[in-house]
Amino acid sequence: MQRIAITGGVAEGKTTVLRMFESLGAQTMSSDQLAATLLAPGTEVWEQLIREFGQAITAADGALARERLAALAFGDPAVRRRLNRIMHPAVVQALQARLSEPSPTPIFVEVPLLIEVALQGMFDAVVVVQATPALQRQRLMARGVPPQRARQILQAQLPTRCKTPFADWVIRTHRSLEYVEAQARRIWRTLTQQVYSVAQRNSVSGVKIGQEYRE
User: Fold this and answer.
1) pLDDT tens for residues 43-90?
2) Domain limits at 57?
3) Judgement on whether residues 130 and 75 belong to the same structural domain of the protein
4) Which of 14, 9, 29 has its CA nearest to residue 163?
5) What is the model's pLDDT at position 109?
6) N or C: which end of the chain has fewer CB within 10 A?
7) Quick one: 21 and 117 in the same domain?
8) Within 13 Å, how many C-alpha atoms sit on residue 46's CB side?
């Protein structure tokens, strides 16, 4: 099974690219979705967060007020570090468990903090999704994020240009949707052709795959 990470910054199109690979036949998974399951009321991670940050981060029904917690984290690096100390180990453990399950096709996993947490060793290849910072801000504000908050979010993140050296492929999403889809199809063909060739040769896995798409 080939395990491919999709990473990049906020509002750069990671989920859109993930869905493109899903439509081509890949198994897909999102670390953010895994994190959401870990944050359900009554879970160990939920209890840890309540102990760390208090009841102020919960809604009336006991569910985590994620927007409230995010506002605290993006507004204060110390709070963000405290949050990450709880969340990162739990998400990594959940990822490892899911990736240990067999898959008949390549599995693509959206991992926004792949490079920051040094998780690239868990994967066979890395796809970095990149847009321009101006487009990131535009997309965030289109989602209803106030301009000042959008700046805080972008400033808190590792610039995507620092992630591209780790990429096997770079998909640039400031281009047209058709262009992005074409890049996804080329990567998919490379992966599936390699699987076929390896099966035909009955050789061992671990071959470096693909090539980096750059403009």
Assistant:
1) 999 999 999 999 989 998 889 998 888 888 888 889 999 999 999 999
2) 35-104
3) no
4) 9
5) 98
6) C
7) yes
8) 15
CB atoms within 10 A of CB 160: 22
Secondary structure percentages of the chain, helix, strand, coil, to 5: 55, 10, 35
CB 135 within 8 A of CB 174: yes
Q: Assess whether 17 and 123 both reside in one domain.
A: yes
- Provide the residue type at 49 as one letter: L
Place of tokens 């453990």: 93
pTM of the predicted structure, to 2 decimals: 0.85
Q: Helical H runs in 54-143?
A: 66-75, 77-99, 133-142
Of 61, 89, 104, the one marking the end of a domain is: 104
Taken in order 177, 178, 180, 181, the sign of the CA dihedral is: positive
Tokens representing 200? 């035909």
Q: What is the CATH number of the domain that holds 68?
A: 3.40.50.300
- List, for residues 118-163, the tens digit of each pLDDT value: 999 999 999 999 999 999 999 999 999 999 999 999 999 999 999 9
